[in-house]
């Protein structure tokens, strides 16, 4: 069981500590947006940055460079996680994936339906996708406060649910929040992605080639009308998971190279400033073997996780979470309330009801050491959808008053969901 428990615990620790940074960035943005420096802070993100090369010019405000540029890396990481889970993780078979799959489907349908019924054609109807997303960082952070009392099965369920939920959110963005398609750009972008799939299938992987083509694909998607972050997910699917070198071969050859390095050291009377030729050869061989032994997908996921968790997501929150609580005539309180209610009740009912149905119909099994009350508690936390909800908010609206009103709903809904979910799980785990 340790081979499952250890990587999960490492993942949870990373997500938990990053949730603190994300929380700090959010609070800072809210404080600045409601301070005497509000105009300067909110105005800063509207400043334009222009990148110009022969034949191409991209000119966007800073907030767009973050949302359409840096967040592509976030979605690329999501794509890597989805592919890894589909091939070798917790959703690589229907039996494993069925419960989190049903939960994710319920957690998307119910909030959207709740919002549509509550909004009833009033301004802001385009925001139906805002309450459907879950935020794994904050949710795991809350669960971590409960300590070791939380069963491993519940944590695994939550992570698998979040991965499937992210995939659902990506599909919603692709099909419902992309418009005015330029088919020429899109076709050429998909052709290049197909080329990468072919190279990956043939075992021809070069990180430099994939990076160059990836940047071209990002620009093409940016110009096509399909949101550029979708390019991140598709590019992630082209990264191979196969290793070029077996672990046993790696062990034998690195041992031989290290022995060569040590033998050269033993021939020296005192430590030399420079390495010998044989020592340099040994180091190069170990580096080459390391690159060939680590699956490219797993290596990239490991390398990017820290950057995304500690830099990109907090920067996104800092740029997007700032909303001035004016409570003026421009504020659409109806929209704020509808989003908050849909996040709190829609997600809870959707996740819990669909999960119970899957178990009662014997399609799925309850995770080990997890009770129905625990499942209810985690279903409440599933409504905490901060990061992805803010992202969809920016795609759904162009009117700043609607964007700010939706932000208020997201913030209130996330806070209330987090508090209720924490208290519910804490009470359940004491029993």
Describe this structure in words.
This protein is mostly helical and 431 residues long. The protein folds into 2 domains: 329 residues, Up-down Bundle (Na+/H+ antiporter like fold), CATH 1.20.1530.10; 44 residues. 73% of the residues lie in helices and 3% in strands. α7 packs antiparallel against α8, α10 runs antiparallel to α11 and α13 crosses α16. The radius of gyration is 24 Å and the shape is globular. The protein starts with a helix and ends with a helix. The mean pLDDT is 86.
- What's the CATH class label of the largest domain? Mainly Alpha
- Sketch the topology as an H/E string, one letter per element: HHEEHHHHHHHHHHHHHH
Task: Give the oligomeric state of the chains in this entry, treating copies of one chain as homo and distinct chains as hetero.
Answer: single chain
CATH topology of the largest domain: Na+/H+ antiporter like fold
Lateral strand order in the biggest sheet: 1-2
Determine the strand fraction and express it as a percent band.
Answer: under 5%
CATH architecture of the largest domain: Up-down Bundle
Average pLDDT works out at: 86
- Helix content range: over 70%
Question: What's the total helix number?
Answer: 16
Show the helix and strand layout:
Elements: H1 2-33, H2 38-44, E1 48-53, E2 56-61, H3 62-88, H4 94-119, H5 136-144, H6 152-176, H7 183-201, H8 207-224, H9 228-237, H10 247-266, H11 277-293, H12 296-320, H13 333-360, H14 372-381, H15 386-396, H16 400-430
Antiparallel strand pairs: 1-2
